[in-house]
Specification:
Blueprint (H helix, E strand, L loop, with lengths): L6 E11 L5 H4 L7 E8 L10 E4 L4 E6 L4 E5 L1 H9 L10 E7 H4 L3 E3 L7 E6 L11 E4 L5 H12 L19 E2 L7 H8 L8 H18 L1 E2 L9 H14 L3 E5 L1
Helix pairs in contact: 4-5, 5-6
This protein binds ligand A2H.
The site of ligand A2H has 20 residues, from strand 2, strand 9 and helix 6.
Keywords: Aminoacyl-tRNA synthetase, ATP-binding, Ligase, Nucleotide-binding, Protein biosynthesis
Family: Belongs to the class-I aminoacyl-tRNA synthetase family.
GO molecular function, one term: aminoacyl-tRNA deacylase activity
Length: about 250
Amino acid sequence: EALGPQEYTALKMEVVQWSGLAAPEVDQKVQGKKVYFVAATLRPETMYGQTNCYVGPAIPYGLYAINDTNVYVCTERAARNMAYQGTTSEKGRVECLATLDGAKLVGTKIKAPFAHYGEVYVLPMETVLATKGTGVVTSVPSDSPDDYATLMELRKKAEYYKIDPSWAALDPFPVLRTPSYGDMAAEFLCKQMKIQSPKDKVQLAEAKDLTYKEGFYSGVMLAGEYKGLTVQEAKPKVRADMIQQGLAFPYAE
Ligand code: A2H
């Protein structure tokens, strides 16, 4: 665990179409408002490679009225933190319009800011922690071994996870080049370390550490406006651009 507060980038992923299970519970309550899934990430420079987004199927999520026009989907804990960080129109207070388990959100189509694939689906990930970030994790399987392992698992067992195979059909997209692991470091390491599933915790933790260090210290951008810059140079620039364009905001905990 880091000592000081962790500084995340909270990415706003606008709902394009609700899943069949969510629609009847939320449509009435959010009329005339824009609704966003809010994903907390430490790697804003990788957002070009989003292929989907993850929620914990058994985690309760709220639809929080952040101001008159915007509604955010996240855990109650995150909404409360946002209220104290000046994200909401009224400091310290936020109204909950509806509560749903993640399982019902699966299959919702959302926008993926900055991504090569403009629209992606919400999918289930058993290892999402309710106690970290917003409980919403945007998936970048090119550079996150956890995201890659879960995406492959969902593709193998779509029926078991109750997903439509088309929701998991977007392939990993290369975002940055690394000298040791190529253009898709997470895929490379998952294959090399023979990671079979999201349950291979020990290997996944090691793969995560290796991809993170290699990407951060030796990575060069392959996508976006800062193509050709090092990851260290690009990271704060991408984050600032997202925030300036209203597609993200700072979130700390
Ligand atoms: B990262 P830290 Cl490309 N449960 O974003 C599980 N994981 C969560 C989470 C939660 N509630 N909230 C956020 N995360 C993930 C991108 C990424 C991330 C890449 C590579 C590595 C990586 C795309 N997913 O994280 O414990 C989010 O995934 C490796 C650490 O606060 C977030 O950044 O350090 C990261 O974990 C935050 O983890």
